Structures are given as C-alpha cells and as structure tokens.
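Limitations
The structure tokens in this dataset are predictions for the assembled complex, not deposited experimental models. Users should treat interface geometry with appropriate caution, especially where small molecules or nucleic acid strands are included. An illustrative entry is reproduced here so readers can see what is and is not provided.
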Amino acid sequence: MLAPLLIFVVAIAIYPLLFSIYISFFKYRLTDPNQVRTFVGLTNYLDAIHDQDIRKALINTLIFVIGTVSLEIVVGLGMALLLTDESRRIHITRAFLLIPMAIPPLVVGLIWKSLYNADFGVIPYYLKALGVDVGRGPLGELSTAMPAVILIDIWQWSPLLMVIFLAGLKSLPQEPYEAARVDGASRLQSFLHITLPLLQPIFLIALLLRTMQSFKVFDIIYATTAGGPGTKTTVLNFHIFTVGMTFFNMGYAASLANILLIIVAIISVIYVIVLERQQL
Amino acid sequence: MKTPTWEKVLKEILILLVIFFFMMPIFWLVTTAFKFGRDAFAIPPKWIFFDYTLRNFEQVLTETKTGRFMMNSIIITTGTTLLSLALGVPAGYAIARSKTKFINLSSYFFLLLLMIPPIAMLIPFYLIMRDLHLLGSYLAVILLDTAFDAAFVVWMMRSYFQGVPQEMEEAALVDGASHWQSFFQVALPLSIPGIIAAALYCIIFSWNDFLFALMLTSPSTKTIPLGILASFSASEISWGHMAVTSLFAIVPAVIISLFLNRYFVQGLTMGATKG
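Predicted assembly:
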C-alpha cells in the first residue's frame, strides 16, 4: 500500500533533486542558443561563497526569519491567552482569525501593497495625519521596507501559532495550578512559573516549524517589493528565483537552491528529532 | 480568585484590537470590490459611506479571463487533492499498521520531504518538464503540487489511523478479508474526519500556490493568483478589479476557515505537533 506513493515520490521528488545536484556542477544557461552544459566541478558552490549578493540575501533572510518568528510567537501566544474561553463569541472570533493564513500569500501581499501605497494607501494616510513623514511609503523606504514586509508575515501567520498554542494550553494539567492557588500564588506568578515552563515543548515546535517556513518566503516579497528597495528585502529564496527563472543561469541557481536545501534540512532534522522525543 | 474589573476591560480592549488588526485588511478588500475608482482612491479613505457598485464584478466577469483562471485553479486543485489522497491515505494506513520499525520511521522521511524549499524542487522540475514538453500543462503543476501534498497526507493520516481502534480490522482479516478490503471497508469509513482535514490542507495548498504555477503554466492554464497579477500589468491599475479577482481567490479560504473550522484546526494541529 506504500508502493504507489514511493514510486511517485522517487519519480517526482527524488529524481529532480538528484538532477539538481547534477546540474549544479555545470555552467548551464537556458539563454545560451546552443544550450551547452560545461562541467565546472564545484565552481558554482565556490562562487556562491564569495558572492556578495548571496551574503546580502543571507543576512536579509536572517533578519526576516528572526523578526517574523520571534514576533509571531509573542503575538500568537498572546492571542491564544486572550481567546481561551469556550464561549460562542470567542469561538466565532477564533474562526474569523483563521482566515488570513488560508488566503493565498500572493493576495495577502497585494492587499497590503495597496494599504501601504504612498499616495492613496490607508496606512500612510493615517501616519501622515499623525505627522509622520512617510516618503515613498513603508515599502519604498530603505529603513522601513523590511519591517513592513515582516508585519505582513505576522498578519498572515500569527493565527497558526495561536492554534498551536491553544492546543498546547488545553493539554496542560490542572493540578499544578490548584497547588499554586493553595500556596497563594498570583495569576501572574502561576503563568510565569507553571504555564511558560510547561509550554516549553510547544515553543520549540512553534519555533522550528515557523523558522523552516519563514526561510522559504517568496510570494509576499514577489507581490510587494520584488526584493527592493535596492536589495533590502531580497531574501535567499527570492534571489535564487531571480538567478534561475529570470536570468536562466540554471547551474548556479541549482547550486544556490541546494545550499538553501541544506540549511532548511538541518532545521528540519532538528524539528523531527524534537517531535520524536516528544512522543516518547 | 475573582478577576478584577479593570483586567476584564483590558482583555476586551485587547481582543477588539486583535480583531481590528486581522480583519481590517480583509474588510478593506471586500469594500474596495464594491467601490467606484474615485472612492477607492479617496483621501481621506472612505470606510463605509460610499456609493456601492457592482460595476467591478461586471467588468471582471465580462472583460477579463478571470472565469478561465478560476476554472484552471479548480482543475489543478481537484486533480492535486484527489491524487494526493489516493496515494497518501493508503500509505499512511500502511505505516500506521506496520510493525516494522523501519517502515514506522519512513513517515519522518515524508515529513522531511514536506519541508524541502519549493524552489529547490522547481528548478530541476522545470528543466525536466521542458525536456518532456509538459511545460504549460495542468499535469506539470498537479504532479509537483502532489509531491508536497501527498507527503502531508501520509504524515497526517498515519497519526489519524493510529488513533482508530484496530480490533474490527483484525476481525475482518481473520474472516479472510485482504488488507485492501479491511482498509476500504473497515478503516476508511472510520477515518472520514481525518480525510476531510487532510483534503482541506491539499485544497488550500494547491489553490494558494503561486510559485509553481508561475513557472509551469502557460497563458491558457494560468491559475487565479496569476490572474490577479494580470490586473496589475494592464495599462491602468484597477484596484477595483484586483479586489474582485482577489475575492474570488479567497473564497475557499473563507469557506474553510468559517464553515469547516473544526476539520481545518484539526489538520493544522495534527500536521504541526502530533508525532
């Protein structure tokens, strides 16, 4: 019963990945009329190490990942704590709050792009009313482009963390809280000394899951800034896309994609080990 | 211990802030779809009081290919979901019922597969599809979407089947049923909620996909997210058209979040946390 899927996966996933390793050893441009593939060994990988653009993209990616994941965990946990009640009103609220993460990320990007628009966007309008100089709009200024993109990601993905934390909060045992109450602990104390430590495994899962996903951000960047202004929001994934699918420098793009794959694979393996431990 | 009044009030205010932050962009999108151009660009912004119109809907449905793009999205989403379930559900069942440690561990292989950066698969896959002359076909997108979706289905259905009692299946096997028979006639009917949750995930993933469709479809097989981009490249940017097309694109998201909420949440938490 496993066989059909295994055959499919080998053909559609494993074979392309091996092919990707193969072409990463070649100089191969689709724009070349003769479609020559020249074997260059590890040159693509060595080039990547010295490529300034890659270094910038990697730094941008780290800023994006750290910014989104840490803030989403805080916002997600906050939302879960606010919305734990089982009243009908809270149920309906929670259902509505799930909508952002089910919307196509491209559409999310486009909605926010119009909200951020310097001339007629809602957000710059109210910022101007408060006396803030918005310049070319949040997405157009070097200093605010990255935070503006991070805010979009927070909008889309905090609800996922809310769901994960709600499940975690529901699974907490009641006894420690009763004991703490008998001992006269305040609710803040029991939150800090009971809830947070007990939620530690959930934090770890949330952190790893979102880190993996955040490394792969693409649609939001494509829709809003296209990596700009300058290269301020060019994350690794977007840069690889540009090298491969805009300049059709396939050999180099494949080597970059493989480097990204290795980074994500390391985080993924840690995630899997954590999940496996949890089960025992 | 009684909650002080100020704390209750603070909580209500925070809840309202959360609702405002997460609903405001959607509210803006929905209202823009019903606005004339002059109101969409109005300064100060018009939130509620403007002249409502259906003109944007009329224009999008008659003058653009949005209908075609919707159809393409439906074809690709249906194909992906059915193929992913057909491949993934039996495999999840086989792993859940297997007593071999090696096969049990193979579910982690599928979890890792799920985490591969899409661009790393897209570059070689694009070249392969080009050589097979399949670029621009529905099949190319469906196959690549399915690689990711089927991996999720296996991962989720394995944990689901582990929670389904085995006694009835064993009884069926003793009575001479084959593994496939006990799967179809006993295990499957008990697992409908799990399958719905897995299907919803597949639907959202393939409906929302942009990157694969961007590279693998042709003008005649474009999906709805690409159609929205098209409303930007037109000579004059029409926010009204963009909003209407976006509304079509978020219909599944809204239906699933609001009306199939229970299954959606189950799929999310099982996919992320349960081992």
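Some entries come with short summary sentences. For this one: Chain B has a mean pLDDT of 88.
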